[in-house]
Amino acid sequence: MGTLTAGVVMMRWELISAVMMFFASTFNVKCRQTSHNVMAFVFTSIGIGMSCWFVTGLLGITLSMANLHHIWYIVRDAFINVMNNTPANFPMP
User: Fold this and answer.
1) How confident is the model at residue 66 (pLDDT cuts 50, 70, 90)?
2) DSSP string, 12-47
3) What's the pLDDT tens digit per position in 26-55?
4) What is the pTM of this model?
5) What whole-number distance in Å separates Cα of residue 18 and Cα of residue 53?
6) What is the DSSP letter of 91?
7) Close Cβ partners of 32 (under 8 Å, ≥ 6 residues apart)
8) What are the residues whose beta carbons fall under 8 Å from the beta carbon of 61, sequence distance 6 or more?
9) How many of the other CB atoms lie within 10 Å of CB of 23?
10) Burial environment of residue 17 by CB neighbours within 10 A (0 to 12, 13 to 18, 19 or more)
């Protein structure tokens, strides 16, 4: 019993996100069947967000502000590097 409890405690966010993905999928199908397209879009967005949260939790990625700041600078530096190496007459006529 202690092992099961420890497993649930360790996986609590992944379990919550998996349950939320299930409910979002179920409500999405129900909303599509009854032609509530806006609500179906909302539930689709929730499902996508929960799946991203699930994957980042399983991979051990923490989405703190420091990490997001670091990722932003990597993307910015890569963009600047690509733009600096792009030919002046690109695309060719």
Assistant:
1) confident
2) HHHHHHHHHHHHHHHHHHHHHHTT-HHHHHHHHHHH
3) 999 999 999 999 999 999 999 898 888 888
4) 0.56
5) 9
6) S
7) 40
8) 67
9) 13
10) buried
